[in-house]
Amino acid sequence: MRTSDSLRKTYGETLVELGEKNTDIVMLEADLGNSTMSSLFGNMYPERYFQMGIAEQNMASVAAGLSLTGKIPFINSFAVFASGRAYDQIRSSITIASLNVKICGSSAGLSDFGDGKTHQSIDDIALMQVLPHMTVLSPCDAVETEQMVKAMVESKGPMYIRINRNDLPVVTNPDAEYHIGKMTQVVEGKDVVVFATGIMVQQSIQAARQLEQEGISVRVVNVSTIKPLDTEALLGFCEGVKAVVTAEEHSIIGGLGSTVASALSKTRLPLDIIGVDDRYGTSAENYTILLKHYGLESEDVASRIRAILTV
User: Fold this and answer.
1) Residues in CB range of 232: below 8 A, 6 or more apart
2) pLDDT bucket at 311, cuts 50 / 70 / 90
3) How large is the C-alpha radius of gyration of the chain?
4) Core-most of 103, 126, 212, 284, by most CB within 10 Å?
5) Could you tell me which CATH class the domain 4-169 is placed in?
6) What sign does the dihedral 42-47-52-56 (CA atoms) show?
7) Where in the chain is the domain with CATH 3.40.50.920?
8) Where in the chain is the domain with CATH 3.40.50.970?
């Protein structure tokens, strides 16, 4: 089993593998193929690879047209551009008609640490999940990315996947069955439940291990499908706990935390939402500095869990 791997590379390699048998898969890129790793597909199947240049709006519109011919288009760019710059075309041309277009938002969250606020997407989940018919996916590691991309090809309708730029530790069981819409418990616990997504799954696992030494039992659940949210499963994981925490590398407004808060509105469980406060990202020398700066490290998760248990 892999211990650490690149989500971006896995994304590209998986589509190369799938593209061998499924000739309906086509790839559209907005001049960032060597970063999003869509270039791997282009190198193997150049006749099904469309370099659109820095024109994300046009890319989304062309993808909509290709889907009407029976193709399965994947459009690729940095998450901040894939979700924001092409928003009107995604809304009007893709989701209103519920077309079978897949959108990859690469270098999501703060993971593009060097380029700063203009290239960091802390609002992409909010933008994408507000659109009717859109499925929003957030894998926590390379193994789940592979499972997710395969499921995206088999599933119909518009879908958005956010991909971290950096290599991440693998926590997903490669032998476990994967389904879009399913949330998975990765750590057992009884005092508090943490619903985490993306890199915050790993951070929450580390926090749970740390708190176990202090006698605090933490249940960690990987919410890799943010929309549609499995509310029934969510409520089930909340049974018996004293409090609920959510953790995401995204704004606390409009992301996983807001969605969970809405689902839990009729319960009386204390809830704390861990994420980026109402502000933009910034540049840094490395990813770890940013996670620390925005309070997204395992120590921060542990601290917030301790605090909510004292409420």
Assistant:
1) none
2) confident
3) 19
4) 103
5) alpha beta
6) negative
7) 184-306
8) 4-169
Question: For residue 157, how many other CB atoms are within 10 A of its CB?
Answer: 15
Set 13, 29, 56, 144: catalytic member: 56
Provide the CB-side half-sphere exposure for 302 (13 A, CA): 17
**Closest among 137, 139, 73 to 102, alpha carbons compared:** 73
Decide if 56 is catalytic.
yes
pLDDT at residue number 4: 57
List Cα–Cα distances, 192 to 196, 230, 299, in angstroms: 13, 19, 16
Q: Which CATH class is domain 184-306?
A: alpha beta
> Which tens digit of pLDDT belongs to each residue from 114-133?
999 999 999 999 999 999 99
Q: pTM of whole model > 0.90?
A: yes
| pLDDT confidence bin for 1, thresholds 50/70/90 | very low
58 touches 90 (CB < 8 A): no
